[in-house]
Write a structure and sequence with these properties.
Number of helices: 3
Number of strands: 4
Order of helices and strands: EHEHEHE
Strand content: 15-25%
Helix content: 25-40%
Structural class: alpha/beta
Largest sheet: 4 strands, parallel
Radius of gyration: 15 Å
């Protein structure tokens, strides 16, 4: 469905939301590639900016993902402002990073 065919209420003037998805999937995994494509299409239809990059093949680590979540929670400048995080939680290290983000006031969906 194209963005111009979405029947959004024209009376609602909402700001553009920026969501960052940090998922433990890699770009060479068919499941995560399909999920990524579906998420991007849904965001387009809802007029949401979705920042979703899968990890490269062999590039995922729990520690790296936790670091990415903390960095996103600490984003302060207008150019990299994030309204919320979408995450998967594959390990205790990542769960701790999610708690950190939530304590900083970042809405987290996971």
């Amino acid at each position: 469905m194209a963005l111009d065919s979405v029947n959004c209420d024209p009376c609602i003037n909402r700001r553009a939301y920026v969501l960052k998805a940090i998922l433990h999937g890699t770009s060479d995994d068919a499941f995560w590639s399909k999920l990524s494509a579906s998420a991007r299409q849904s965001a387009l239809e809802m007029r949401i900016h979705l920042d979703l990059e899968l990890y490269p093949p062999g590039g995922f680590s729990d520690e790296g993902m936790a670091r990415d979540i903390r960095r996103a929670a600490d984003s302060k400048s207008e150019s990299d402002k994030i309204d919320g995080l979408i995450v998967t939680i594959p390990s205790p290290a990542v769960a701790e990073a999610v708690r950190y983000a939530a304590k900083r006031g970042m809405p987290v969906f996971g």
